[in-house]
Specification:
- β49 and β50 form a beta hairpin.
- α1 runs antiparallel to α2, α4 packs across α5 and α5 packs across α6.
- The chain is of the alpha+beta class and 840 residues long.
- Strands 5, 6, 7, 8, 12, 13, 14, 15, 18, 19, 20 and 21 form a 12-stranded mixed β-sheet that branches.
- It contains 13 helices and 52 strands.
Length: 840
């Protein structure tokens, strides 16, 4: 290191040491005078020592003189005591070789009455940070009138890249954007540009907030930053504890802590009518006022003449999932095949589920299949299309040349039927954009006729449930009575292409597919279907058995009964109600012609396909299954019903064969390996009786945490909510009230339990965050006594009315009423009843 560099290093060290140890020039501060000069002299001696030490280090070899640029931001926290006893917090960030001016959150005062060991948080503020910023553009040659091969061309920060085989994948990691395409063989995915985000850096903004708590007579500071749509864990710097006896109006500082850089900022156009950005770590595509969001930071693009197909992966980051079809800017809206990508995904799922995707053909066999199908639909002209092997790795029907091009991977019966359906529509002059409603209807008709091992009715229902358009008919497309005989003669003589398919051609009963697909195993018998999967990493097996209800609405089942054994060996029985959410906890059931029994079930909601479903979960799944198993032997049915909004919702499930599937052994043994253990062990469970009453109990390094939450609306016509939370954490029972209001609440709280007297009491007030939303929180100092009162009143179905008002403004009040019925009847109630018992 040269003498000049050493001098620069010493100067920088002196400046930074002075900035670290001195006081920041926050507004209203005084200069320290002599004390400052003494401190500077001492720091000069320290800097001199740094120079001498650096000279001694010259003889030590280093791997590289070039050091990577730091990412993220370095911050330090500060606090000072006011004469009224409150403590004010602020922060600074390191930028351009010095500490920034003080940053003061709008909510930054720790109240005098703040309880010990309870973290309170400031309002969010923004700091300037180094962030990877990439702007790119994607061009599609065919959309611009060029005669290119349809590959993508990208501009990333002034550099140009070109994909292969019309495929491009963008993978977003924390520090880079990886661009991938296919190799020259159009089979293996290969890197196109990697680590693109390690170089382009820019200035971004990041939300942070200061956390503070009183502890052992002093105060401790921490900092949080935005992460995954919420807040990160608290980062506690060295020197986070401020002195117990602080001088009034003097700032005290912590050592610095480095916050990680936020996720990369990526944005650019897919074409002039579609844009792609990154929001909360996921790609977001916006086209024609619609937004599509990726999973797991992955977006895959496939190029076509008139469109780009956009895929992502499922929420488990394992299998591909259709995201959107983006039509070219020059394609007429009436001719835009907006169903294409989702139709591919739906077709792939059903072919795999029913085992219809593994019947391989030779080229001449594929031609014979096409000829047979055409002779079935058109006994007199037109001629069938010619089947040709594709050299580009793509499979499609060319209407101009009247040819079907098949890639190596598409030499299967299902792929041939797929392309033949396109040819049939053109030959019959049926106006349908690509994979429109008439095409889907025709494809289902081909499956029913030539692939009878597929449950076509269920596939049609699922297609509509996924939002696909499915026409009722495909006229004019008459068929002859010749039927499947040409295909049977082709596929069912030596060598037999599929024993199961050939048996179906002769009308024999089908027991469902028994072959496994990868690490999955599934099958179907009419309205009953099942699937079992093994986790490659852990070896855990999850199994699900589903029965559709006999009641139908618009050709779809109104409900589904699912029996599952999850990977954690937990048995579950659930009833899914299509387009009915939320559902009440009270659910009545009857087995066969028996009496109706009304019970309380756990409730929830979820999505299946593109539909919203309300859910009922049986509290004791094993006992309920034993009852059903007994009735199934008599070919009885399970009847369920509940009332909501003056309407009765009912469903009936046929129990025949429900316990005779190939996965029955998995379900029968579910949970058998678990020991009953100590009856005093805590219960770990989550669930809800309604949208306004739910519970959760989980275990971490600090023990078991149990929460029961009752929600209601704040009175006076507002849409804001209030929540009553009863929880047991670290052996302490606590009741707290969370108010969705923006002003700080006074400690004075007035409440009435059932018909008791009106009580005014001094409580603790603070702020908190719930799901990214800021709340004002109040809670009694003696929570155990207060919870005991609530539990006593809840036995008689009582209620709690509570009123709080804003600090320094008693005229602005907030009132809420909580129904106590069921608050202490949840499955985790034993945890609350035992809370703190061992300590007592």
């Amino acid at each position: 290191m040269s003498g000049t560099l050493l001098a620069d290093a010493a100067a920088t060290a002196l400046q930074r040491a002075s900035a670290d140890q001195g006081r920041a020039r926050f507004p209203g501060q005084r200069r320290p005078g002599k004390q400052r000069r003494a401190v500077q002299a001492r720091f000069f001696r320290i800097a001199t020592l740094i120079v001498l030490t650096a000279i001694g280090v010259l003889a030590i070899p280093t791997q590289s003189d070039a050091q990577p640029k730091p990412t993220g931001v370095e911050v330090r926290l500060a606090g000072r005591l006011h004469e009224d006893g409150r403590i004010e917090v602020a922060l600074q960030y390191w930028s351009n070789g010095r500490w920034s001016r003080g940053i003061f959150p709008t909510r930054r005062y720790l109240p005098v009455d703040a309880g010990d060991d309870r973290w309170l948080t400031s309002a969010p503020v923004q700091v300037t940070i180094r962030q990877s910023i990439v702007r790119f553009g994607v061009e599609h040659p065919r959309w611009d009138g060029a005669n290119g091969p349809g590959d993508f061309e990208l501009r990333v920060d002034g550099q140009r890249y070109r994909s292969n085989c019309g495929r491009l994948t963008l993978r977003l990691n924390k520090e880079k954007l990886a661009l991938q395409t296919l190799d020259d063989s159009c089979v293996v995915e290969t890197d196109l540009a990697e680590n693109r985000l390690s170089l382009p850096l820019g200035q971004g903004r990041q939300d942070v907030r200061v956390a503070a708590r009183r502890s052992a007579g002093g105060m401790e500071l921490a900092v949080q930053h935005r992460a995954d749509g919420g807040w990160s864990d608290r980062l506690i710097p060295n020197g986070a504890s401020l002195p117990r006896n602080m001088t009034v109006d003097r700032w005290y500082y912590t050592f610095s802590v480095v916050l990680p850089a936020p996720l990369p900022a990526v944005s650019g156009p897919l074409h002039r009518d579609a844009s792609l950005t990154v929001v909360d770590g996921q790609f977001q595509i916006e086209v024609d006022d619609r937004r599509y969001r990726s999973n797991c930071g992955v977006v895959s693009l496939r190029s076509y003449d008139d469109a780009v197909l956009v895929d992502t992966v499922d929420s488990q980051c394992v299998s591909a999932e259709a995201l959107a079809t983006i039509c070219g800017p020059d394609v007429r809206s009436s001719a835009c095949d907006i169903q294409r990508n989702h139709a591919y995904a739906w077709e792939r799922t059903w072919l795999q589920l029913d085992g219809g995707d593994g019947i391989t053909l030779l080229t001449w066999e594929a031609q014979d299949v096409v000829d047979a199908v055409y002779s079935d639909y058109f006994p007199v002209g037109p001629n069938p299309p010619r089947v040709v092997r594709s050299g580009e790795g793509s499979t499609h029907y060319d209407g101009m040349r009247h040819r079907i091009y098949l890639a190596d991977w598409a030499m299967t019966l299902d792929a041939v039927l797929h392309e033949t359906a396109h040819a049939l529509l053109q030959s019959a002059s049926v106006d349908d954009p690509g994979h429109g409603g008439r095409y889907i209807a025709l494809l289902l008709s081909l499956w029913e006729r030539y692939l009878p091992i597929i449950d076509v009715d269920a596939a049609r229902e699922e297609a509509r449930a996924d939002g696909l358009q499915v026409a009722d008919s495909v006229q004019p497309l008459p068929r002859r009575a010749q039927g499947v005989s040409p295909l049977r003669d082709l596929l069912c003589v030596y060598p037999v292409k599929s024993d199961r398919l050939c048996r179906a051609y002769t009308g024999e009963l089908d027991s469902g597919p028994t072959e496994s697909i990868g690490n999955r195993f599934g099958g179907r018998l009419s309205s009953l279907w099942w699937i079992s999967a093994t986790d490659d990493a852990t070896g855990a097996v999850s199994t699900t058995l589903v029965r559709e209800s006999t009641e139908r609405s618009d050709a779809e089942s109104v409900a589904r009964l699912s029996i599952s054994c999850e990977a954690d060996d937990q048995l579950e029985v659930a009833v899914w109600w299509r387009d009915v959410s939320p559902v009440p906890a009270a659910l009545s059931y009857r087995l066969g012609l028996g009496a109706w029994i009304e019970t309380r079930w756990q409730t929830g909601n979820g999505t299946w396909g593109d539909d919203e479903w309300g859910l009922h979960y049986a509290h004791d799944a094993a006992a309920f299954l034993q009852t059903m198993n007994w009735q199934a032997a008599s070919a009885e049915a399970l009847h369920l019903q509940f009332r909501r909004d003056r309407r009765v919702h009912a469903a009936t499930f046929d129990l025949r064969g429900l316990f005779e599937t190939p996965v029955q052994s998995n379900l029968a043994q579910c949970g058998a390996a678990r020991s009953l253990g100590d009856p005093d062990l805590p219960i770990l469970d989550t669930g809800r009786y309604s949208d306004d009453l739910w519970w959760a109990a989980s275990e971490d390094d600090e023990g078991v945490r149990t929460f029961v939450v009752q929600q209601t609306r704040i009175a006076n016509g507002t849409d804001r909510i209030a929540r009553l939370q009863v929880n047991c954490t670290e052996g302490e029972i606590e009741a707290s009230f969370w108010w969705m209001v923006v002003y700080e609440l006074d400690r004075t709280v007035t409440y009435r339990i059932s018909g008791g007297s009106l009580t005014t009491s001094e409580w603790i007030s603070s702020t908190g965050t719930w799901g990214g939303q800021e709340f004002m929180v109040v809670w009694p100092e003696d929570s155990r006594a207060f919870v005991a009162e609530l539990a006593w009143a809840a036995q008689a179905g009582g209620s709690l009315g509570i009123r709080a008002h804003e600090r320094n403004n008693p005229n602005r009040r907030y009132t809420a009423t909580f129904d106590l019925n069921g608050l202490f009847d949840t499955p985790v109630q034993p945890n609350l009843a035992r809370c703190g018992r061992d300590a007592d």
